[in-house]
Write a structure and sequence with these properties.
heterodimer, A: about 425 residues, alpha+beta, 4-stranded mixed sheet, 4-stranded antiparallel sheet, about 10% strand, B: Butyryl-CoA Dehydrogenase, subunit A, domain 2, 3 domains, globular, binds flavin-adenine dinucleotide
Chain lengths: ~425, ~375
């Protein structure tokens, strides 16, 4: 282990050159496996454990060296390919994920299937050597600048819903694929609708086997949940000079654009005390109580997450504490929005030049509703927790027969509130 | 004393409702909220003219229809439900009431009459800083000289301030607070519309430097606090209407939306959420109606107005949060209408004082 770190340090100091292009440098990383050390040796890694790879990544950070392209859906694509891809697919796609030449999006949710992801009605039909895809996806973050999509589509309508799905890699640059940006209630537009009309996927781009799509999707989702709300950013590399840093910053700007408001949707608990002091609300006994409640909730959640991580590292089986983070995050975000409102009063509404913290407070208030929806709603989280953690009996199901007979939406959700 | 709307009041409500459905679909709201004026002049003419809603709560001597806060509440509830963009809150409820309460008959002729026939728009400027909607320590001052009164200072969160032809301004004099009236284009007035998260309710900041103004009524102290009560009653009824619209939208959507082979409304988790919400919304409506009745009967007005403001703020916000949640991803989009109400709920929560402020004000009004 120490040996590995020493080797990494030595290789990096001998080879690092900020005047290379980003792709030139990352090609070297892919060839030697240093940037993705926990990937297998035959596929651009060194076959190390995840912990060792994290230590090596820390060396990159410490030396101010640019690593593999990380952001967006790339790493979810990589994890899925590593687990389910065949040799040709891994060789074709993984390297360009590391170099950042390709970017990816996830095409799972549909207007008719969100919580019920396995209810997908986008269809893929085999015609000769090609799959012809028709249907619509929605909420696809970054699809507007993706080269490839991870696509879940139905290939068999006569079997129960989970068994009739297949998983494909679709080329986003083709006439049959149309991407439209969707504006959110907070004014940002991070996600898209993707329309597929006789879009073409070659046979080689089926991942795993026909009918095995749900299992593959579960891999992607497991990785997504693990990376939920990870802070993205260039950190210490923001100031450095050199061609490679310029290119890197440009990449981050594009990749991170859809995530700009993510800190606000979590409620910005970090800003609470500062705002309370600025406004004098810190002296109000009622507001003090609310602030304290919020801090208690937020710290307890952090400690619960830390407890889960520590147990995992110690090799203990996962306890209930590991399943609660997402639900806690929703409660914290909602309470934080309330406390920010109490602190800022009518100033919380301001979005223009005169607003406190450049409109951040208002942005918090209109962004927190996302937390309890994105990545699985609170209601779904509660079902999972009660059934899988507490062992409560399952709801009776109405969707276990052949998918073609399962009731579904005749219209897709676009109704207004009036 | 139990309260129920009369048949006439129900008929009146249906008329306002029909008008809103016809003239104020959300397509219109979306169009108007992006304009600087924020309302449609023709629709405003209909509201003031044909419908005769402008002076609904004002005495006949002042040019009104002689009804009370209950009828005003009906208008506000339906307006809040439909999210119509009109300067009713600023020009009629706030400025109109101030003029009818404080102005002399000849001043009413000059300043109030054009508001009621829709010719002009007015705004009432009291608030000076966030949260201080009731400040008795006004920093804005009025000085008298041989030339008359002159006002200097700043005002914030003035509803319909940028749209107003006429401004009614609260300012401190050596003998206590007074209200003044002036044309909005008078020398020394700077009006900036402020950008807020709720573009359906336009607000402005005012800067006043030595602005010539006319004292409203006699040179006697005015009770600003009491003046705000009708605005609170109106706002509470507007919020009750908004909460009702959100509740209805959530019920309608969850009956239609299918996941896991069944309508999501068939899940108990959702039924219980909506039953809870119904309880909150109906309770809030009761509070809003009761506040109007209390206002008309001049009974414990501040207490009931603040109670209603606190109750309806909480209910509206809860309805907004639940309605977005129950729509799932679509509820978080710009294209779906829920966010229009969500933002109005948020802006109404803090406009005229937060729920915490009003809970305190209620207790103080009760003598505790
Ligand atoms: C900011 C944001 C980012 C997103 N990013 C992505 C992305 O990158 N990729 C992607 O694929 N998707 C993404 N989504 C979509 C998200 O995963 C879905 O919106 C979510 O899973 C809910 O699905 P839905 O919108 O279809 O709502 P529905 O599933 O229709 O839910 C509507 C309501 O019904 C409730 N409900 C549903 N089933 C049950 C049940 N069994 N019991 C009780 N209540 C139930 C829900 O909790 C919700 O309140 C994003 C959404 C948001 C808001």
């Amino acid at each position: 282990m120490d040996n590995l770190i020493t080797q990494a340090r030595q290789w990096l100091s001998e080879n690092w050159d900020p005047d290379l292009s980003l792709v030139e440098w990352r090609t070297k990383l892919a060839e030697t496996g240093w940037a993705t050390a926990d990937w297998p040796e035959e596929y651009f890694g060194k076959g190390t454990s995840a912990e060792d790879a994290a230590e090596i990544a820390a060396v990159f950070q410490e030396m101010g060296i640019v690593g593999a392209a990380q952001s967006g859906v790339r790493m979810l694509a990589a994890a899925t390919l590593l687990e389910h891809g065949n040799d040709t697919q891994k060789r074709k796609y993984l390297k360009r994920i590391i170099t950042g030449e390709d970017s990816w999006c996830q095409l799972f949710s549909e207007p008719g299937s969100g919580s019920d992801l396995a209810g997908s009605t986008t269809r893929a039909d085999l015609k000769g050597d090609e799959w012809i895809v028709n249907g619509q996806k929605v909420w696809n973050t970054s699809a507007h600048h993706a080269d490839y999509g991870l696509l879940l589509a139905r290939t068999d309508w006569d079997v129960p819903k989970h068994q009739g799905l297949s998983y494909f890699i679709i080329d986003m640059h083709q006439p049959g694929v149309e991407v439209r940006q969707l504006k959110q209630m907070n004014g940002h537009a991070s996600f898209n609708e993707v329309f597929m009309t006789d879009a073409v996927v070659s046979r080689d781009n089926l991942l795993s086997e026909v009918g095995n799509g749900w299992q593959v999707a579960v891999t992607t989702l497991a990785h997504e949940r693990r990376s939920f709300d990870r802070i993205r950013g260039g950190g210490s590399l923001a100031e450095q000079k050199g061609r490679i840093y310029d290119e890197y910053r440009k990449e981050l700007e594009i990749d991170n654009e859809p995530y700009k408001w993510y800190p606000q949707r979590a409620g910005r608990v970090d800003l609470i005390l500062e705002r309370a002091r600025e406004t004098g609300a810190i002296n109000d006994p009622v507001t003090r109580q609310e602030i304290a409640k919020l801090l208690i909730m937020s710290r307890s959640a952090q400690w619960t997450a830390a407890r889960a991580r520590a147990a995992q590292q110690a090799g203990k089986p996962q306890g209930p504490e590991g399943s609660l983070g997402k639900l806690a995050a929703s409660n914290i975000a909602r309470l934080a929005a309330r406390v920010h409102t109490d602190i800022s009063g009518a100033d919380a509404l301001l979005t223009g030049a005169a607003s406190p913290h450049d409109g951040i407070i208002a942005e918090i208030l209109v962004s927190v509703p996302a937390v309890s929806i994105a990545g699985g709603t609170d209601e779904i989280q509660k079902n999972i927790i009660s059934e899988r953690v507490l062992g409560m009996p399952k709801e009776p199901r109405f969707d276990t027969g052949p998918f073609k007979d399962v009731p579904r939406n005749s219209v897709s959700g676009k109704w207004g509130a009036s | 004393m139990a309260f129920a709307f009369t048949q006439d009041q129900d008929n009146f409500r249906h008329m306002v409702q029909r008008f809103c459905v016809e003239k104020a679909p959300t397509t219109e709201t979306r169009k108007l909220m992006d304009t600087e004026a924020g309302y449609d002049r023709q629709v405003w003419q209909l509201i003031c003219g044909e419908l005769g809603l402008a002076g609904i709560h004002l005495p006949e001597e002042a040019g009104g229809s002689g009804f009370g806060a209950v009828e005003l509440g009906i208008v506000m509830e339906e307006f809040g439900r439909s999210m119509i963009c009109a300067p009713y809150m600023g020009s009629i409820v706030m400025a109109g009431t101030a003029l009818s309460t404080c102005a002399t008959p000849s001043q009413q002729q000059r300043w109030l009459a054009p508001l009621l026939n829709g010719e002009k728009i007015a705004a009432l400027a009291i608030c000076e800083a966030s949260g201080e909607f009731y400040s008795t320590h006004l920093h804005c001052t009025a000085r008298i000289s041989s030339e008359g009164w002159q006002i200097s200072g700043e005002k914030r969160f003035v509803v319909n301030g940028k749209q107003a032809d006429t401004l009614i301004i609260a300012a401190a004099t050596d003998n206590g607070p007074r209200l003044f009236v002036t044309e909005s284009n008078a020398t020394g007035i700077d009006i900036q519309q402020v950008e807020t998260m709720d573009p359906t309710r336009k607000m402005a900041d005012l800067k006043l430097s030595s602005v010539d103004a006319e004292l409203l009524g006699q040179d006697v102290p005015i009770d600003l606090d009491a003046l705000q009560n009708l605005t609170l009653v109106a706002l509470a009824n507007e919020m009750a209407g908004g909460a009702q619209a959100l509740l209805e939208a959530a019920v309608e959507y969850t009956k239609l939306r299918v996941q896991f082979g069944r309508t999501i409304g068939s899940f108990q988790a959702i039924k219980h959420k909506l039953a809870d919400l119904l309880l909150i919304v109906e309770s809030a409506k009761s509070a809003a109606y009761q506040a109007a009745v209390a206002f008309d009967n001049k009974e414990d007005v501040s207490e009931n107005a603040s109670l209603a403001k606190a109750a309806t703020s909480e209910a509206y916000l809860q309805a907004a949060i639940d309605c977005v949640q129950l729509h799932g991803g679509i509820g978080f989009t710009w294209e779906n209408d829920t966010h229009l109400w969500f933002k109005r709920a948020k802006s109404s929560e803090v406009f005229m004082g937060t729920p915490a402020f009003h809970r305190e004000r209620m207790l103080q009004a009760m003598g505790d």
